Amino acid sequence: MKDGKTVTLAIESSCDETAAAVMSEGRGVLSNIISSQIDIHKQYGGVVPEIASRHHLTNINTVVDRAMEEADVSMDEVDMIGVTYGPGLVGALLIGLATAKAYALAAGKPLIGVHHIHGHICANYIEHRELEPPFMALVISGGHTNIVEVTGYNECRVLGATRDDAAGEAYDKVARVLGLGYPGGPLIDRIAKEGDPHAVEFKRVFLEKDSFDFSFSGIKTGVLNYINSEKQAGREINVADVAAGFQAAVLDVIVAKTLRAAIDMGKDRIVLAGGVAANSRLREMMAEGCRKNGIDLYYPSPVLCTDNAAMIGCAAYYRYMAGERDDLTLDAIPNLEL
């Protein structure tokens, strides 16, 4: 039962997780169901968009039903339908969006579109009830690497973004050439702990002096060139050392730029969000940097770092409370800007 509180049914399908959640007052999780396709796409070394869409279509209604049952609420008790409408894979987005529209139309509920990155940021509100804007956010995942200045629940400004590969994408590609498998992020994080980050060092790419942007294609190429040269020379490759060196090169830049953004913009709180925010070494390095600079650090538990609908429900709630609504013409935007 809703007990007079605002209830949101949220749907997320931007990539390869089919997810639905029921939220109370934005931050309270009544249910959070995730159907992952990792094992399906693992054999291909990455997400295949058409296959992802097919599985979303197969799973979406079951996932929503499970979310409603676990939350023990009826559609009459739901106040709004929140849904991711971008960025992401267009076919995958359309499955979730069409489902959300159908529920909104059939039940006469408001439709609230949510930006996927905004959702990742909002994941922190769920577990950190004391957290409020303003703060600096680092959103880091397979598709995004952004430094975002958050000034309100619905107001933010992108200060820096990747100019080529996202950090998570670079992790996946390096893991592939090292023969580690997919997804690369947790695999590299795990094996890097056994390696020496100074044994094989790769160039740190900071770009222009005042830029908060990122570039990871050079580091990725550096790893590939190193592996090829070692193979040609007949030398054995220490995978753990290469993984540790690659991770250090990526995270040194990410941590330094995020801290500088917070300091330059006068923010005393940093928030981590996105799948790569679950990386243990990133958390350690950011915690140390924040401690030295008197900055508070927040990040979600791993289940809320990966794609989920609870974060979408939280973001939808704050749009709803601000009086924002969408109609049934809302379309999927695969390259939606924040």
From TrEMBL:
As one GO molecular function, the record gives:
iron ion binding
SUPFAM superfamilies, per database record: Actin-like ATPase domain
Q: Which CDD domains match?
A: ASKHA_NBD_TsaD_bac
One Gene Ontology biological process: tRNA threonylcarbamoyladenosine modification
Its predominant location is cytoplasm
Q: Which residues form the Gcp-like domain?
A: 29-313
Q: Which cofactor does it need?
A: Fe(2+)
Where would one find coiled-coil regions in this protein? none
Q: Which UniProt keywords apply?
A: Acyltransferase, Cytoplasm, Iron, Metal-binding, Transferase, tRNA processing
- Which gene does this sequence derive from? tsaD
Q: Which Gene Ontology cellular component annotation is one that this UniProt entry carries?
A: cytoplasm
Q: What is this protein called?
A: tRNA N6-adenosine threonylcarbamoyltransferase
Question: What is this protein's function per UniProt?
Answer: Required for the formation of a threonylcarbamoyl group on adenosine at position 37 (t(6)A37) in tRNAs that read codons beginning with adenine. Is involved in the transfer of the threonylcarbamoyl moiety of threonylcarbamoyl-AMP (TC-AMP) to the N6 group of A37, together with TsaE and TsaB. TsaD likely plays a direct catalytic role in this reaction.
Highest taxon, organism lineage: Bacteria
**Where along the chain is substrate bound?**
V139, I140, S141, G142, G143, D172, G185, D189, N279
User: In the Enzyme Commission scheme, what number(s) does this protein have?
Assistant: 2.3.1.234
Q: Which HAMAP family match?
A: TsaD (MF_01445)
Organism expressing this protein natively: Candidatus Allocopromorpha excrementipullorum
Catalytic activity from the UniProt record: L-threonylcarbamoyladenylate + adenosine(37) in tRNA = N(6)-L-threonylcarbamoyladenosine(37) in tRNA + AMP + H(+)
